[in-house]
Structures are given as C-alpha cells and as structure tokens.
Design brief:
This protein has 4 domains: 326 residues, 3-Layer(aba) Sandwich (Aminopeptidase), CATH 3.40.630; 107 residues, no CATH class; 92 residues, no CATH class; 229 residues, Rossmann fold (3-Layer(aba) Sandwich), CATH 3.40.50. The strands form 8 sheets. Strands 27, 28, 29, 30, 31, 32, 33, 34, 35 and 36 form a 10-stranded mixed beta sheet that branches. It has a 7-stranded antiparallel beta sheet with strand order 16-15-18-13-17-14-19, with helices on one face. The longest helix has 21 residues. The chain is of the alpha+beta class. α4 packs parallel to α7, α7 crosses α13 and α10 packs across α13.
C-alpha cells in the first residue's frame, strides 16, 4: 500500500513541524511515528507534554489498570471552551434530563477511543498525531467542538504486544508473513490483564478499565464516539455506515449521520486512492461494543477498522503483494479521526438538536420491568450494575402486575411486594433500559457479529414481568447492615447457600482454616427450614479458641447472616452427624492455560477466582500439562479450547487415574471434544439426521446465509435442573442458559444429567439456526460422570461467559466446593 508523498508531507515532515513551537510526536519521541511502536508510558508523556504547554488542552487521569498503568483522557478545544468546560458538560447533560435545568449546549462533543484491543496498535500512534494536528492546524474546528481523546483504552494489552514485538523483530523489519515478528504468541496483546475483550465489556463493566471509563463517560455523554480498531492484513479500511442489523431503537438521524460521516471519510480516501468498504461485517446490535453502547446512550457510535492487527508489525507483505506499514495504518486512522471532528464541527447544532430528541422515551412499548426479589444477593448485584450506568430503579408497591412473563414467555400475572425491583423506561436512559431488559431483541438479519441475546433478567436469574403500563413504584430504602454476634453456646452456625456471595464466604472460611459442612438434604431445626446446600459450621469441627471470633468477623465482612443452633438434632430431615452432612475441605484448584486454550475462556476462569470467588488458583501451562503431578490438586479446570495435541491418550489416561482417586475434572465448552465419543468416557455427540443426509448443492452466492442455519449465535434456552444434585444446589428446577454454538451432546447413559434440554425446548431469545435448533432437544447441558471416587463435570455451555452471565457462576462454585471435597486427599 503506497501513500502519496504530498499527503505524508502535509502531516509529518520536518518543514511543517519546525513552523510550530509545539513539538510534534516525532520530535518529542525522537523517532518518526510509524518507525517503531511507542510504549504506553511514552504516549502518556506526550499527552502530558501537550497539556502542560497549551492552554486549550486539559489532561485528566480517570483510572488505572490491573497492572497499574494510568488511564488518561485529553480534552481538546478552544481556550475559551476549555475554561468553560464544566459548564459545557453540565449544559449537555441537561439536554438528556440526567441533570435538571434548561441550559442549551451548542458545542459538539466528540470522543475518540484508541487501542481497546492491545495488538491493534496503530491507533495509539494515530492518537498522538491526531492531538498534534488538532492543536496546530485544525483550531477552527475546535471553536464549537470539544474533542475527548482516550489514547489507549487497554494499555496492559498494548504493552504486552509492543514489548513482545520489540523483542523478536528483525532490523530492518521483515515483511515476510512467515517471519516470527508476524506470529504473535498466546495469549496475544488483544485482551486486557485478565484476558477479557474490552470491546465486549462496555455494558457489563466487569473489568476495571470498563468500570472506570463508564463512570467518566456518563459524566459527558458525548454526541459522537469512535472506537478505532484493526482487522486482518488483507482487508481494506472499514468505516461507517455500519452493517445491518441495527437495533430498532437507533434513530433515523443516527443512521443518516453515519452515512454523512462515511461520505466525508470517503472524500479523503478517494483523493489518495485508498481502498475502503462500508455497510458490511460490523452491525449495531450487541449492546456491549464501543460503538453500540454509545449509540444506545444517544451518540453516533462508530467502529473504524484498519488492516493490520497483531500480525502486521511495522510492515508486512499482504496477499496482494503490497507492503502494509505501521506508517500507513497510523495515517489512515489519523485521516478518519480528523474527518470525524470536521463533520461533527460542521453539524454541531444538528447533533445537539437530535441528541435532545433521543432522550424522549414516551413511545417505548414496555413501560416497566419488574423483577422478583427472591435473592437479595442477586438483586444487589443487579443494582450495582444499574448504578454503574446511572440507570434509576425503584421498589414495587404491593399488588399484582401483568405483562410478558420471562419464565413462561407468555402473558401472565405476578404478585409483587415492596422488595421487588422496578425499572421504568420513562427515564433519561430509558432506551438503554429497553436494550438491556427487553425479552427479545428484534432481529432483522440473522448475519450478526456477536451474540444476539443478553436480557438481564435471564442473565441474572430473575423471575420478571415486562409491563406495557407503568407499574406503581416508590424509591427504595437503604439496605440493612448484617451484624452477627458470637454465641459460645452454639452447637453450630448455619448459613444459606444460593448465591455467588455465599460461595465467596465459603472460600474465605476455608482460607481461614474453618471447616464447614453442607447438607445434601433439606432439614428443619429450631423452627426453621433449610434447603439443600445449606452451610453448617459445627463447633466440633473447629476446636480452637478463635473459632467464634474468626467466623463472626468473616461473616460480618461478607454480610452473611448466621443462625445460631443449639443442637444437632433436627425436627425433620437429617441430623448434623449424618453421612449426608458432608465436610468441605480446602480445595487445591488448577486451571489449564497456554497453547490450545481459549485465552478468553481461561481469562474468565482466572478472573472469576481472583476477583469474585477470591479463592486461590494455580495457572498451569499447557506445555507442561502432560508431565504435571496431578496429585497436588483436587480440582482441575480445562477451559474452552482445542486440545488435540495436549489431551493425548497418555494424558487422558493420567487424568482418569487422578479422577478415580477423588479428583474433580471440569471441562468447559469445546474442551468437551477431547472426551466425546471416546470409549473411556460416557459423553457422546449428537448428530442430526439432516446433517447425515445433507448434500452440499448450495449456490456459492447463498453459502454464507445458508451456513447460519447451522449456527446458534448466543441464544437463550431454558433447561431443566435436577436440583437434588450438589452441582445444582442453590438453584430452582430450571435454568436459562446462553448457548454459544450448535454442538450438542446426548444425555449421559452412565452418570448424572444435572441440567438438560427436554424434548420440548425452544430458544427463548436470540438467533438459533433452523437446522441447529433441531438438535438441542434431548441434549445435555451440565453433567457429572462419576469415575471411581471422583468426577468429570461436563459444561456444554460456558457459565462464566464474559463474566456477565451472573446466574451461571454458582454452578462452577458448586463443582469446586461441593463435589468430592469431603475427604482429605
């Protein structure tokens, strides 16, 4: 790919640089942008330098990553606007109704986000160029525009990539695709510290980068937001307008302005002869992208994709025989960034007018979503998410509500109490409420880029009603603080088991050398009834002077309510000395990582244990897995992945021996392929009759659309649970699962089918291909294959997916703590 000398000169040559008193990025860094990758600290230094030397630039630290790299925003505008920045911000929020008042804003607010994927590294280089160009040559645009630049959304991932590349690259760089510098190793620089894709985390805010960014984003609510990316090396540049499907709440104006933006970009690209495409591949449906989340918050949200990615390095030969360089990539992103500011400045008044209109939510079909508060922990977790997005909620008034029932997918009635949660759509962020809570997103095209179902009542495990009339509600009261007291005469302390918070409490007890038990059967004692899984902490199991003090301290810290019991003799069920009341010993847990493992799935396990369960886990490199001494561990987790070269027959035989001695092996997602249809294991894949008979005579032009009939792209299905099995303790008799693929497995003939899809199952929400959906009935979801004293747990759907499917997490805790944990190994 060649760039005209005249264009390069306009942006980068020393002739234009020396005409400015401000140093360009190249002068400041000591090398030309694009000649090497810039590490994050130097990028921050340049933004600090510019803000220190110019009165029309303000730099703000808004957070810090897991690896303690700072997160910054730069505000660029006229000096007058920077001096009036807070008033501009407040005036903009009054347009939404978030802040009361009648202030009118006439400034366009444009937010440019760079490098959300760490190995898509050209955009941060472009961020420095964009800052420099705006403050030196494009000042007229800044008279009516505030530009917000986040130079690196994911600096941990970026530095992971840059540091690796600098270690292995040739000098000069090698453009041969076979060169080592074009083969980035596992896990790549794309994800953050915990190996999460931050471009899938905007709505869920499970990662520290996302949560901190959302907080500052909500303070501004920009009119335009751009997420800069890279795709693979042979692709032309992609910019707006986006592809179908568009979510139905996206306004005509948002669609039309995307087209205007695209036309403006095209005018610059046409002059240079650069290739580009629009309206393909990247849709606006899934709400947790860097383009959709802002769109659902009233902005013009857009993704720009430059060829490159982690494969490109400083330069690479494409399949078309051209050399794609980092300089090319940075200039392309510079061009679209400047073009975005230009078209926004020209349309500042219209952007504000249409932005105000977006927040009128009286025409939305559902007026209220009512969620039954049967589990305070779940309710608090959902409230915390709503607080993150500054979405208002209330408590229901005692009565009956009517509407769409999420459990039955039919119109129904539900009795509500003052503890139940109500979220109205008649509030400033009502359209986002609709997107997050609607039972089914309207899907106008089956070809999508990501999952097609995410409704929060299903994800968090609530019984819920969507009402077309506004439900009577009132602002809720402050939550009570639990304070437990020591009872030296207590025979035992009892604690419930139905949430992830309970599992975190259990983990803390074990790490404090407190041994609890759990009951496999329901029981009643001293006038109260308790369910399966209830924790029983016996004084007899914990004979030390500090037992009561330590237990009460941990329970109060975790806000777990303990019930003091004076006897182990129950009025119904099993006594506390029964074989069905089993001790829970400390579990030593290992998780497989490295080659073959899905980095995202491993990251989900790692993040779950470290930040939510807060229980120690050992990360094992897959290269060493065959020679590992498995006896050191009680639980081994194999995340989603492809393990043909790792889970060999020899390794599987070792795992079987370890399992028989009492180990718990947990396999997730595609990891099940390593066990299915092998004579040593009970797991069998389902093969549809249609697939057996199929003859491929599909016309080439129809191939892609026909193929989606075999796919399930993030669709919700209702499973049946055997909640008498410890794997399902804490659940009811059904569970809504997010199915991410069309691979299905038969019921285990030998073992426990703990969660399964019966013969009448249908997809509740999201896209499921007409062929793939036929294979879901009579298939297993979660199962236990007993093997000697241990178990293999098969999890067909990933209950930890992106950490947002909150209602699945207790299954993992159950597998770790409640299975095979009663014997010391």
């Amino acid at each position: 790919m060649k760039i005209k000398l005249l264009f390069i000169t306009a942006f980068l040559t020393l002739g234009s640089i020396y005409s400015q008193s401000l140093q360009s990025p190249s002068e400041f860094l000591g090398y030309e942008i694009g000649s090497r990758f810039t590490r994050n600290y130097k990028v921050v230094d340049y933004f600090k330098y510019v803000s220190t030397n110019l009165s029309n630039v303000k730099l703000e630290k808004y957070g810090e990553t897991n690896e303690h790299r700072p997160l910054y925003l730069s505000y660029i505008s006229s000096e007058e606007n920077i001096n009036n920045l807070e008033n501009i911000r407040v005036a903009n929020l009054t347009q939404t109704g978030i802040i009361s008042g009648n202030s009118k804003n006439n400034k366009a607010i444009v937010w440019l986000s760079y490098n959300v994927h760490g190995n898509e590294a050209s955009s941060t280089e472009a961020a420095m160029l964009t800052l420099y160009e705006l403050v030196t040559k494009k000042k007229t645009w800044l008279e009516n525009t505030v530009v917000i630049i986040d130079p690196s959304v994911n600096p941990d991932g970026r530095d992971r990539y840059v540091n690796w590349y600098n270690q292995v690259k040739s000098t000069p760089f090698n453009t041969n695709q076979d060169a080592k510098e074009h083969a980035e190793p596992w896990p790549s620089g794309r994800p953050n510290h915990y190996l999460f894709d931050l471009n899938r985390d905007w709505a869920w805010a499970t990662q520290v980068e996302s949560a901190q960014r959302i907080k500052i984003y909500n303070k501004w609510m920009p009119h335009v937001h751009v997420d800069f990316h890279e795709q693979y090396i042979n692709s032309p540049y992609y910019f707006a307008p986006a592809a179908e499907p568009f979510h139905e709440i996206i306004s005509d104006w948002q669609r039309e302005f995307q087209t205007e933006v695209g036309k403006n970009h095209a005018s610059y690209f046409d002059k240079e002869g650069w290739l580009y495409f629009t309206k393909e591949s990247f849709d606006l449906l899934y709400p947790s992208y860097g383009d959709t989340y802002p769109t659902y918050m009233g902005a013009i949200g857009m993704t720009y994709e430059q060829a490159g990615h982690g494969m490109a390095g400083l330069g690479i030969n494409t399949d078309e025989g051209e050399v794609l360089t980092l300089k090319d990539r940075a200039i392309h992103h510079l061009t679209t960034g400047l073009s975005t500011v230009e078209i926004s400045s020209k349309n500042a008044e219209k952007l504000n007018t249409e932005f105000r209109k977006f927040f009128k939510n009286t025409t939305l079909g559902y007026k209220s979503y009512v969620l039954k508060n049967e589990n305070e922990d779940k309710t608090n977790r959902l409230k915390a998410l709503l607080d993150t997005h500054e979405i208002k909620y209330e408590n229901a008034k005692i009565g009956i509500v009517k509407g769409y029932d999420y459990t039955t997918q039919k119109e129904a009635k539900m009795n509500v109490s003052a503890n139940d949660l109500v979220i109205h759509t008649d509030q400033p962020k009502g359209k986002m409420v609709k997107v997050l809570f609607e039972p089914k997103a309207k899907l106008v095209d089956s070809l999508t880029y990501d999952i097609t179902a995410w409704s929060l009542p299903y994800a968090h495990g609530f019984k819920a009603i969507a009402s077309k009339t506004k439900v009577n509600a009132t602002i809720g009261k402050n939550e009570n603080v639990i304070t437990n007291s020591i009872d030296k005469n207590a025979y035992a302390y009892i604690s419930k088991w139905n949430s992830l918070d309970d599992a975190t409490f259990l983990g803390a007890l074990l790490q404090a050398d407190i041994t609890p038990r759990f009951s496999e059967k329901p029981f009643s004692v001293e006038g109260k009834s308790y369910k399966r899984g209830t924790l029983i902490i016996l004084r007899n199991d914990n004979r030390n002077d500090n037992f009561d003090t330590n237990l009460i301290d941990i329970a109060n810290k975790h806000q777990r309510e303990l019930t003091n019991i004076s006897t182990g003799f129950v009025s119904s069920g099993v006594d506390f000395g029964s074989y069905s009341v089993k001790p829970i010993n400390q579990q030593k847990v290992a998780v497989l990582s490295g080659k073959g493992t899905s980095s995202l799935s491993f990251g989900e396990v790692w993040h779950f244990f470290e930040t939510q369960l807060k229980y120690p886990i050992t990360n094992i490199n897959s290269n060493n897995f065959g020679s590992l001494d498995y006896s050191k561990y009680d639980v081994i987790i194999i995340p989603d992945g492809r393990y043909n070269s790792i889970l060999t027959k020899t390794t599987l035989d070792k795992l079987k021996t370890w399992t028989r001695s009492g180990g718990t092996l947990i396999a997730i997602g595609n990891a099940l392929n390593s066990f299915a249809d092998k004579k040593e294991f009970s797991l069998k894949k389902k093969i549809s009759e249609e697939k057996i008979k199929e003859t491929n005579l599909t016309p080439y032009a129809n191939r892609e659309r026909e193929d989606v009939a075999n796919l399930i792209t993030g669709s919700i299905f209702k499973s049946t649970l055997d909640n008498t099995h410890p794997l399902a303790f804490g659940y009811g008799n059904y569970y809504f699962s997010l199915k991410l693929g069309g691979t299905t497995y038969e019921y285990l003939k030998e073992g426990n089918n703990v969660a399964y899809f019966d013969e009448n199952v249908k997809n509740v929400s999201g896209y499921a291909g007409s062929k793939a959906v036929k294979n879901v009935p009579k298939s297993v979801l979660f199962a236990e294959e007993k093997m000697g004293s241990g178990s293999i747990i098969y999890m067909v759907d990933n209950p930890l997916f992106r950490s947002f499917w909150q209602n699945g997490k207790l299954f993992v805790a159950n597998a770790v703590f409640l299975l095979n944990s009663d014997k010391l190994k």
